[in-house]
Amino acid sequence: MLTRSAIRIAVTALLAVSVTACKNPQREAMRELEKRHIEASGASLLTAVQNGDTSLAKLLLQAQVYSGQRDAAGNSPLHLAIDRGYPAIAWELIEHGADLTTANPSGVTPVSLSVVKGETAMADRLLDAGAPPEGLTPDGDKVLPWAIRNGRLAFVRRLMEGGADPHQKDAAGNPLLHVAIEAGRRDLMEELLSLGADAAAVNAANESSLVAALRKNWRDLAAPLVKAGSDPNLPDRSGRTPLETAIDSHDLALAKTLAAVGARPLDGSWGNALWKAYSHREIDACRLLLSLGVSPETRDARGRRPLEAALDDDRVDFLHLFLCYGADGRSLYYEACRRNRGYHAEVIAAHGGQPTTLPAPFLDTPLGLAIREGDSRSAVRLLSHGARPDQPVAEGQSPLYLAIVLRQPRIVKELLKRGIDPNAALPAKVSDSFIKLVRGGTVRWLLKNDTNVTPIMLAADSGCADTARALLAAGARSSVWTKRNHMWPINIAARKSDVKMMRVLLGKDPVVEQRRIVVDLSDQRATLYDSSGLELFKTAISTGRKGFATRTGTFAITNKYRTWTSTLYDASMPCFQRLSCEDFGFHQGVVPGYPASHGCIRVPEGNAQKLFALTELGDRVEIQP
């Protein structure tokens, strides 16, 4: 049985529990707000935050009012508390369950605002409470790239630890690592990599982090970045890879570093780099490129191999280098001997380059090589020491034909001195390799589709007047034509508008001109000048009417007929002077004072006879608009 004292103690305890249970913080807060005549609403909370009234804000939160009320700019009470520097109010909002994920109309979240404001403790509290590590800054940038760009390492670390995406990009499309590099924040790079930033990601210009770092001249980061995943072979925005840039700038140390971490030539495109290094006489760069697999047989725009260039330039050091990396020197052994480069020949022989006898004409002859090189001195020496002037060269043709198409007049003269027939036609079947050496399309077509193409025709096509003169002096006949198409040498020169060549074929000096005629279509006048530019004769003319316009350009008088009947119009054309083997020229006719012909140049009767008497075959005629 309980004593009276025990009963008293029990009753007292029960009364205390009853009083405590009857206490309600929300109800008490509501009573207090009623006493103050303050409405328990989200609007009141927003006003309290705006005024920095911490006690009132706390009272309203105890009353469990709505904490998501927005101001006119769309900011929540939590945004305002952080922005205006009221951490106690912000803390109360977090404790009472304010929405930590909400963003204002500009995309600014409580976390991103705390980072921009430099509120480390607030950012930590928000992240610990489950706020997402994302959002925009008031300037519209993503918060993590902003923190990186502004060197906020503590925030970067906290955001990444809080779950920020290490693969995200800034508003311009640049990954985090690129943001740090472009901002010059080397101190953040290792931290970002350790926190999971993607070194393999490319920026908005599709450049690797390696390219971005090298642009900052952070060459010591090349190996770490590649090890972390950056592709050493991705080009920069101009299409140049890091290795290519290093070689072009003669930065051999960087080039070796890049090569060591996997940078490689792409699809043989480093051939140009090899030639560029050689042209600058950078032997270390050449050695590096060759060690990377660039072929020592890579040809330049002229078709030369590096070994040939080294021999041409008398660079035995490069010759030795290219031979060490597998260049084939057998074809150059004779060449080195021929050029009196004894030491070069010894180096080539030491690398197994001494050739066996060349089985000409299947490969080539020394004479053919000299012609192809344009080495007239060696060609003369070879011929003087017994080289056969008629032995076919690699293209399967006579040395004379090769010398003509390659415009080697001195060698042509030497071959003709040794009895080569200047009128011997080319064989019916001509090799493609020879045809490729021919300059003009007309002769190329004739070699494939016609016969009886002679040396003087090749010369007419080559444009080398000295070659044509040497052939004519040796007895070449210009009055020959091809069998099927009846093409004359002068026709070939005319098709190329080669007045000098036409003059040679007509027996005139190609350079010294006694006369020239200028035809002015606009003035309908023709003027004859002497070699000094003195006017000798002038006449009115009538040229082609509409639909039959007289051609402009430079021509030569290739035929003169005192009487002639047009084969096109069956009309009499006295004093006809044909221009460049074409179907028009000067002739006597009606000159009404305006263009009236079918394309020819009409001259009045008396003047036509005088002009005919004053001109000669080969005279230049310039027809101007």
Map the helices and strands.
Elements: H1 4-22, H2 25-35, H3 42-51, H4 54-62, H5 77-83, H6 87-95, H7 110-117, H8 120-128, H9 143-149, H10 153-161, H11 176-182, H12 186-194, H13 209-215, H14 222-228, H15 242-248, H16 252-260, H17 271-279, H18 283-291, H19 306-312, H20 316-324, H21 333-338, H22 342-350, H23 366-373, H24 376-384, H25 399-405, H26 409-417, H27 432-435, H28 441-449, H29 455-462, H30 465-473, H31 489-495, H32 499-505, E1 515-520, E2 525-530, E3 535-540, E4 553-561, E5 576-579, E6 585-588, E7 601-603, H33 605-614, E8 620-624
Parallel strand pairs: 1-8, 6-7
Antiparallel strand pairs: 1-2, 2-3, 4-5, 4-8, 5-6
Helix pairs in contact: 3-4, 3-5, 4-6, 5-6, 5-7, 7-8, 7-9, 8-10, 9-11, 11-12, 15-16, 17-18, 18-20, 19-20, 20-22, 23-24, 24-26, 25-26, 25-29, 26-30, 29-30, 29-31, 30-32, 31-32
